[in-house]
Amino acid sequence: MARLARKTVRELTPYQSARRLGGNGDIWLNANESPFDNEYNISLARLNRYSECQPPELINAYADYANVQPEQVLTSRGADEGIELLIRAFCEPNQDSILYCPPTYGMYAISAETYDVNAKVVPLTSKWQLDLEAISQNLDGVKIVFVCSPNNPTGNLLARKDIEALLDMTANSALVVVDEAYIDFCLEESASDLLSSYPNLVILRTLSKAFALAGLRCGFTIANNDIIDVLLKVIAPYPVPVPVTEIAVQALSEAGRARTKFQVLDISANRAYLQAGLSMLDGVTVFDGYGNYLLVKFPNADQLFKALWDNGIILRRSPIENCIRISVGNRDECEKTLAFIRSQLEQQ
Do 294 and 275 touch, CB atoms closer than 8 A? Predict the structure, then answer.
């Protein structure tokens, strides 16, 4: 019965998530997950009732954390749902386009294709920054521009002046969506303070990374309230399960935020350890990273990746030539991964 599916969906290549790619091993550094497995208490009460569409306690907690107003926050099933909601709400199928700048997160294009929305591609520059001139020449019919900072998989921050220039460039024609999934590792670099100046700015956030809640599937869209009101028209009636709200509110409490801050410092220290150790290896280039991962260029990445995979160290192959993305795990995982890479390179 697959023939009954829409032609676009039949021909779609799905996003190759870490779990879809599989693997077997003891060290999983391929999905930018936190190494911390925090415990939470849930009551399991009220499960006979539907959840609220936008639980006030969760919205208020995240607004306080992000230093924005509650009416500027929408919560969803991960930031991925936020991407889809924006495309569904603002792009006419077979008419409008999104624009994105690879190498970057692959779901922008896949979500657009799913809804028969064209995806225009303007690659980042050689320094992995926005090519503003090329973007300006490709904005015809574009309703949404997706950018990511810190960018996945490169790890770098986009220049703030370029984000502002992009917002000015699209002021009356398109939304600029800044994906800040990894911003909790460098909160001072957030674009959230620009919301008051730019009505076309949208920010995506998640609890999956720094808050160590990838399995919870809790994300946020931050924007001015007129954009949030539009998204509320297309979101599912009950997008946030009751246990998700309970856990997320605990994570965003004063104690939960303090724990996350401590864990971010720990992960950042391990990132520095990995970067220093890998940088000492001949022929290896480690790119500066501001999230919980590093992009690393090796002399023979395919051979090394296979050796790591076959020995139970599961990393993420990057579409960038000879590059592997390494999530930052706990110190033991980082030490074992570094030692194995060093031994492999010495044999080459």
Answer: yes
Structure confidence by residue, pLDDT tens digits, 320-347: 999 999 999 999 999 999 999 999 998 8
Long-range contact pairs involving 60-69 (C-beta distance under 8 Å, separation at least 24): 61/248, 61/249, 61/252, 61/253, 62/205, 62/220, 62/248, 62/252, 64/252, 65/252, 65/257, 66/190, 66/192, 66/205, 66/220, 66/222, 67/192, 68/192, 68/195, 68/222, 69/225
Rg (CA), the chain: 20
- Which residue, chain included where needed, has tokens 């080459």? 348
Torsional class of 30: left (φ above 0), alpha (ψ -120 to 50), beta (otherwise)? alpha
268 closest CA partner among 209, 190, 181: 209
Q: Which of 12-26, 169-183, 285-299 has the lowest mean pLDDT?
A: 12-26
**Which percentage of the chain shows pLDDT scores above 70?**
95
User: Tokens 């008419």 appear where?
Assistant: 95
Residue 201, C-beta contacts closer than 8 angstroms, at least 6 positions apart? 167, 175, 176, 178, 191, 194, 195, 223, 224
In this predicted structure, the answer to whether residue 258 has a pLDDT above a threshold of 70 is: yes
pLDDT score recorded for residue 10: 74
Dihedral, 55, 58, 61, 65 alpha carbons, nearest 10: -120
Angle (deg, nearest 10), helices 254-279 and 331-347: 20
pLDDT in tens, 266-297: 999 999 999 999 999 999 999 999 999 999 99
Residue length of the chain: 348
